[in-house]
């Protein structure tokens, strides 16, 4: 008899009373031990002044949740619960002792002792699992109630005239990416995400197109806004809707509890509101790192205007050319597609719709004197953004340069592979000053055209003149807005464009190819470059300043600065590495530590295990200061070491699966449960679909501050708009992916065409000065780029509201049996 066959053994060899009594003894023994663990958990909570989740209750007045009376009530309820558990435990003990004595009467010999051992063996795993659950709960509660983690105030650089309070510094020290508990649940965002997801999983759109084609062949018509779903699709959508409703309820409860319990969240919102209302300061991030910088707005504008006043690089425009340039590019792309010079896919990816001008902002270089600004342009959503991305893929084959290093890891491997004789050379770093803004655009375009059409390789299907026009669209005709003014960059490339790094690389490749013979004459024995940083080994007798001057004379647009190695340590920093040379021995590498430093970089950069051990100790200390548990930090280090030194064996290939992305608003555990349930629902209906969950934090500290210009209402795209007729009060709700002004002009044109020729012009003119109300619902800013990337839009005006009154309008109201019947509204 053992734990596996105890019941069958007792049934076959003994009286049935023994089997029934055995089951009763086992039941009460297990319940007794589990209640003991419950009491242990509750008493631990009472000792640490922790309130379990089941004692959190709602009140009519939400402010009572932070009162002392609410806390005292929870403590009293906790004591009552502990007393009840003790009473319940005593009852279970009596029942267990009674059933055990009864079983002992029925058993003979050592049967009773054997049965007790088997009961203990069977119940032991369940009790151990309960113990782990209790420990996990206590650990989780202790994390939620422990003191706020240490924040490093030095990451906040206050260069403004405002004197920050200690609470404001502590709030900002969390970083611009720090997530706050949202004060409201984004219902439209959640529904839009799951609606888009439900369309992508079963490919509803593709199935609908096929169905519509079949019905058309059979002379049957179904309205375009109706989707016909099969049984599997209906089941999936029904499950997703139910799961989303449950998630919304749980997320709201989580949000209310954490917003009220975590007092610093309410304080953070008040502090951020105060900082946002101060129009004399700019809150932004530094050029390098993840800190926070506060500067006077007047100083910020003066430094940015000093950059824009350079007439050789920038030109101020009198109007916004966005719509005109978008139309010109669209016409060129249409002609190229019509002539067969580009494919339909090329056309779809590059054709602009509803574009916005680039927006310029500056990032402070806090590590340099006088804190200059690095100009950065946000190019997402511009008319040439899609074209720049496609041209980047198309022109990437031009890059063939042996002096380029891919990253820090490649540089470290290159340095370690050098012969020992190379260690006698001096290490020097040459940096190119303002590389992107000094790239000669016309010269770079000529270099590209030479590679594409003069080399031995087959030329592209696009003609040379048309290719030049496309390149000009993404370089010379890239306008941007700053402080309400529109500018063109007449020379150089913008930092922020997808094509900018490639153009810089092509120009520097040609520069190095042309002047490579001069490097030997200058005493350069080794040259490696990462973007604008160059690592060089010079002959010991050569002066680095002399070489820097000679390099700066090679091209009028390129100027170099030099950083020499430390004379005592024979070391120099390059990228994330600290290179040290020992004459006749070779090179060693260590970490050049920045504010943030991942584990895998330490493993790959350090050349000695002792130094690696010291770096791990530093990472542990840094993580502890930032509130990370030691267990989590050790697991990350161990997992990364195992992936490098003990990789897993390769597994056989699995059938191809489609990856569908699901975006979920992050509200702690409810979001994680929701993601797992959605994945399970999809796996049940569509096993070859793989769901990749991405959690979004809707409220961050950085969202309260912006340095970019706002887009005018007329130039907004991907909007849902509502128009009300002032005569009959009928409403028209529409959505558009093009510019709002363009859509309004289209309405106006249609109205003029539909207007009766006998319409009195004076009546039309008088109607043009009547007031009207427009409500615009803007979609998520992340989804306003191109029509090919549009997310599901809901016909519910919200979020962004703009009342445009006393504007020119043209309204036509149909006269029918119902007074004031409304056709369409247009606004100009």
Would you kindly provide a written description of the structure presented here, covering whatever features stand out?
The structure is a single chain. Among the domains are: 6-145; 298-397 and 433-502, no CATH class; 608-645, no CATH class; 713-824, no CATH class. The chain is 46% helix and 14% strand. It contains 24 helices and 22 strands. Strand 16, helix 22 (669-685) and strand 17 (689-696) form a beta-alpha-beta unit.
List keywords for this structure.
single chain, 828 residues, alpha+beta, 24 helices, 46% helix
Per-chain topology:
Layout: H1 6-13, H2 16-47, H3 68-106, H4 111-145, E1 156-159, H5 166-172, H6 187-200, H7 204-217, H8 231-261, H9 263-277, E2 281-284, E3 292-296, H10 297-308, E4 314-317, H11 322-338, H12 344-350, E5 358-364, E6 373-378, H13 385-395, H14 408-416, E7 426-432, H15 441-453, H16 464-473, E8 479-482, E9 485-489, H17 500-522, E10 524-530, E11 533-538, H18 544-552, E12 560-564, E13 571-574, E14 577-582, E15 586-591, H19 599-605, H20 609-625, H21 630-645, E16 658-665, H22 669-685, E17 689-696, E18 719-724, E19 731-736, H23 740-754, H24 761-767, E20 774-778, E21 812-814, E22 821-824
Parallel strand pairs: 1-3, 5-8, 16-17
Antiparallel strand pairs: 2-3, 4-9, 5-6, 7-11, 7-12, 8-9, 10-11, 13-14, 14-15, 18-19, 18-20, 21-22
Helix pairs in contact: 2-3, 2-4, 6-8, 8-22, 15-17, 20-21
Q: Total number of β-strand segments?
A: 22
Quickly count the helices. Answer: 24
Rg calc: 35 Å
Q: Which residue ranges are poorly predicted, with pLDDT under 50 across at least 5 consecutive positions? A: 595-601, 758-828
Share of residues in helices: 40-55%
Q: Helix/strand-derived class?
A: alpha+beta
Could you say which overall geometry the principal axes of the C-alpha atoms support? globular
Order of neighbouring strands in the sheet with most strands: 4-9-8-5-6
What does the average pLDDT come to? 77
Straight-line N-to-C gap = 90 Å
Strand composition percent: 5-15%
């Amino acid at each position: 008899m053992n734990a596996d066959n105890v019941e069958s053994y007792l049934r076959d060899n003994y009286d049935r009373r023994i089997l029934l009594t055995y089951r009763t003894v086992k039941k009460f023994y297990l319940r007794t031990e589990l209640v003991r663990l419950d009491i242990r958990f509750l008493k631990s909570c009472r000792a640490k002044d922790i309130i379990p989740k089941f004692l959190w209750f709602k009140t009519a007045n939400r402010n009572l949740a932070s009162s002392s009376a609410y806390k005292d009530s929870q403590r009293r309820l906790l004591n009552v619960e502990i007393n009840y558990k003790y009473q319940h435990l005593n009852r279970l003990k009596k029942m267990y002792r009674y059933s055990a004595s009864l079983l002992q009467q029925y058993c003979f010999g050592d049967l009773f002792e054997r049965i007790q051992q088997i009961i203990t063996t069977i119940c032991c795993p369940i009790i151990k699992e309960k113990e782990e659950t209790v420990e996990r709960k206590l650990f989780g509660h202790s994390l939620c109630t422990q003191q706020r983690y240490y924040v490093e105030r030095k990451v906040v650089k206050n260069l403004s005239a405002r004197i920050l309070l200690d609470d404001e510094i502590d709030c900002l020290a969390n970083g611009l990416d720090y997530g706050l508990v949202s004060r409201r649940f984004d219902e439209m965002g959640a529904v839009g995400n799951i609606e888009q997801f439900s369309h992508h999983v079963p490919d509803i759109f593709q199935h609908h197109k096929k169905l519509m084609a079949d019905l058309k062949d059979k002379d049957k018509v179904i309205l375009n806004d109706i989707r016909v779903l099969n049984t599997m699709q209906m089941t999936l959508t029904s499950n997703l809707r139910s799961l989303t409703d449950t998630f919304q309820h749980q997320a709201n409860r989580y949000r209310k509890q954490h917003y009220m319990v975590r007092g610093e969240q309410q304080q953070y919102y008040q502090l951020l509101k105060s900082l946002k209302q101060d129009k004399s300061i700019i809150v932004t991030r530094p050029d390098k790192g993840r800190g926070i910088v506060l500067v006077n707005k007047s100083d910020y504008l003066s430094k940015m205007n000093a950059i824009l006043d350079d007439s050789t690089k920038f030109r101020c425009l009198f109007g916004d050319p966005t719509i005109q340039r978008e139309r010109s590019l669209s016409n060129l792309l249409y002609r190229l597609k019509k002539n067969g010079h580009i494919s339909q896919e090329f056309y779809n990816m590059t054709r602009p719709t509803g574009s916005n001008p680039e927006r310029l902002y500056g990032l402070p270089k806090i590590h340099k004197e006088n804190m200059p600004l690095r100009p950065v342009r946000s190019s997402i959503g511009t008319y040439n953004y899609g074209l720049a991305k496609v041209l980047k893929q198309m022109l990437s084959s031009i890059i063939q340069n042996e002096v380029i290093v891919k990253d820090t890891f490649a540089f470290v491997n290159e340095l370690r592979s050098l012969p020992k004789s190379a260690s006698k050379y001096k290490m020097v770093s040459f940096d190119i000053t303002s590389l992107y803004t000094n790239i000669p655009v016309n010269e770079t375009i000529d270099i590209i055209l030479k590679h594409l059409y003069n080399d031995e390789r087959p030329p592209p299907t696009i003609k040379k003149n048309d290719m030049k026009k496309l390149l000009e669209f993404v370089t010379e005709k890239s306008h941007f807005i700053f402080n309400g003014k529109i500018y063109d960059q007449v020379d150089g490339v913008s930092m922020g464009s997808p094509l900018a790094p490639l153009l810089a690389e092509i120009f520097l490749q040609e520069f190095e190819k042309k002047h490579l013979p001069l490097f030997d004459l200058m005493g350069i024995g080794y040259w490696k470059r990462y973007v604008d940083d160059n690592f060089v080994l010079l002959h010991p007798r050569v002066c680095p300043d002399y070489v820097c001057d000679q390099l700066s004379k090679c091209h009028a647009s390129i100027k170099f600065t030099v950083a020499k190695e430390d004379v005592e340590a024979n070391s120099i920093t390059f990228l994330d590495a600290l290179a040290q040379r020992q004459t006749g021995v070779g090179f060693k590498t260590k970490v050049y530590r920045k504010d943030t430093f991942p584990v895998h970089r330490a493993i790959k950069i350090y050349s000695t295990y002792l130094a690696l051990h010291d770096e791990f100790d530093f990472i542990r200390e840094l993580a502890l200061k930032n509130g990370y548990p030691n267990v989590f930090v050790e697991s990350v280090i161990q997992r990364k070491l195992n992936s490098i030194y003990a990789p897993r064996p390769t597994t056989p290939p699995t059938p191809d699966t489609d990856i569908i992305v699901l975006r979920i608003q992050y509200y702690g555990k409810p979001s994680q449960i929701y993601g797992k349930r959605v994945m399970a629902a999809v796996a049940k209906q569509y096993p070859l679909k793989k769901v990749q969950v991405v959690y979004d934090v809707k409220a961050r500290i950085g969202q309260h501050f912006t340095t970019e210009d706002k887009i005018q209402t007329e130039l907004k795209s991907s909007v849902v708009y509502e128009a009300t007729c002032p005569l009959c009060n009928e409403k028209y709700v529409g959505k558009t992916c093009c510019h709002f002004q363009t859509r309004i002009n289209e309405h106006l044109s249609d109205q003029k065409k539909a207007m009766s020729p006998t319409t009195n012009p004076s009546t039309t003119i008088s109607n043009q000065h009547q007031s009207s109300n427009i409500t615009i619902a803007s979609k998520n800013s992340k989804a306003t780029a191109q029509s090919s990337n549009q997310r599901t839009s809901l016909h519910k005006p919200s979020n962004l509201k703009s009342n445009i009154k006393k504007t020119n309008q043209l309204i036509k109201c149909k006269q029918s049996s119902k007074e004031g019947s409304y056709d369409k509204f247009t606004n100009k």
